[in-house]
Amino acid sequence: MPKFSANLSTMFREHSLIDRPRAAAEAGFRAIEIQFPYELEYKALAAEISRYALAVSVINVPCGDFIDGGEGNSALPDRIDDFRESVLLAAKYARGLGALNVNILAGTPSIDDETAKNALADNLRHAATVFAKIGITVVVEAINDIDRPGFFLSTADAVIDIIDRADHPNLALQFDLYHTAMMGQPLVETFEKHADRIGHIQFADAPGRNEPGTGTIDFAPIFDAIDASPYDGWVAAEYFPANRTGDGLAWLKIFG
Which CATH number fits domain 4-255: 3.40.30.10, 3.20.20.150, 3.30.390.10, 3.20.20.140? Predict the structure, then answer.
């Protein structure tokens, strides 16, 4: 079965963020990821990660006002300076935490598609160049447009198209099982179609975005497909536990 990482922005939220690496390690995880670790000083967080010998599978590049309902800073020509500042901050944290990947969110630009695609491709190319110098892969994910209406990249095909437009070897797809399922796309077939372009994988059950066993996804076939593929990275649980995190980890015993 795949090797599993725990997303500390969605899991173990019974604990403060600084205490979540310990909680994840005690639950049996050997890797963690954090969507936006910037509320903590990276040296303190890095010390906790090192204390428990955890790998860091991904962090997100700051995305402007997107989390608060705005358009973000990745696909708008007039927010290039903000995006580049975000890349510098993410590079500082990613290097300090030992992150393997950084994820860039496309946002919900309200401008015409072609202008947004050009801006996003230029920004991805810039980020890929910056992170290549420190040995960190830039990944881009599709987010379903049911949970996030208007999200610019809602399918893996759309992500691959923008990566091809950016044309940089340090760009890869972040394949998220939850978002793929929410878009009504078959998991195994979509994974196998893009397997050679995938830099990171995340999952949650759908609908609901809770732990495996709470929704309709049959995880065994897709985990088997990942095992059978050349992908050797972490597969990250990025779900919101239905109750306390520890009460919903039966899947880890089945698949871990």
Answer: 3.20.20.150
